[in-house]
């Protein structure tokens, strides 16, 4: 059985416009996520409640099925508010930006993440979540060799894809893809720099610990006199044969 671990997914709480009059949310507040079995619009609905147990919205529909399955099988989900409410103007109303924290069995979480990525073709709405997860992997999980490979592949992709001139919609699409990969290249180079800097600092700290030698404090003159007892010098031999006369 795998150890317990956490997975973070940056997304939002939707429908806040229907509840903000009675239920407030502050930045940094941790919200509870619960399955809402009596929801007539979405059988996988996940209700999000504030610290006063008041409803503030729901998990986005593109995530609700995955989250519902996770809560039903094994695990816990919380959402930390990471910003002020906003309205994108896409008919979704007020939303609250949050970091969803999924806590549970590591084996199950790995399978859950794999399921999301395996079904991206049928669920393009998950692509933003997948991209956020990929960027976290690049930052936290890669080593020096893996950074080198990513940089090499990314540079080659840009070289192969970037159009020499933009004339039609296809060229524009390729140009945008190339620009995205250039941004990814910059991000990866920065992550590699931070990784190598941290690695170097850790090695220097280890070296300092090994080279450190204990040096006792220098003794004072008084301490030296106490430590070394007085031993009188022997009587000179040439005087030993002299006889004292009365």
From TrEMBL:
List residues of the HIRAN domain: 6-106
The residue stretches assigned to a coiled coil in this entry are none
Q: Which GO molecular function annotations are given, in alphabetical order?
A: hydrolase activity, acting on acid anhydrides, in phosphorus-containing anhydrides; nucleic acid binding; zinc ion binding
Asked whether the keyword Transmembrane is assigned, the reply is no
**Keywords for this entry?**
Hydrolase, Metal-binding
A Pfam family name for this chain? HIRAN
Name of the molecule in the record = HIRAN domain-containing protein
Organism from which the protein derives: Stylophora pistillata
């Amino acid at each position: 059985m795998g150890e317990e671990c956490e997975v973070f997914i940056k997304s939002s709480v939707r429908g806040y416009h229907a509840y903000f009059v009675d239920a407030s949310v502050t930045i940094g507040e941790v919200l509870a996520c619960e399955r809402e079995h009596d929801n007539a619009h979405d059988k996988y609905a996940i209700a999000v409640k504030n610290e006063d147990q008041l409803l503030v919205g729901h998990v986005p529909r593109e995530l609700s099925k995955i989250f519902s399955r996770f809560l039903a099988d094994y695990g816990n989900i919380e959402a930390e508010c990471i910003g002020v409410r906003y309205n994108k103007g896409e008919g979704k109303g007020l939303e609250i930006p949050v970091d969803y924290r999924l806590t549970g069995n590591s084996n199950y979480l790995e399978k859950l993440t794999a399921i999301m990525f395996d079904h991206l073709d049928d669920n393009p709405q998950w692509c933003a979540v997948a991209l956020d997860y990929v960027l976290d992997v690049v930052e936290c999980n890669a080593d020096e060799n893996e950074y080198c490979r990513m940089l090499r592949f990314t540079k080659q992709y840009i070289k192969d894809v970037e159009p020499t001139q933009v004339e039609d919609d296809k060229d524009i699409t390729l140009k945008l893809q190339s620009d995205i990969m250039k941004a990814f290249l910059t991000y990866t180079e920065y992550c590699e720099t931070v990784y190598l800097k941290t690695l170097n600092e850790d090695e220097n700290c280890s070296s300092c610990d090994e080279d450190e030698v204990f040096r006792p404090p220098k003794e004072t003159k008084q301490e030296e006199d106490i430590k070394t007892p007085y031993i009188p010098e022997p009587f000179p031999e040439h005087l030993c044969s002299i006889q004292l006369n009365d």
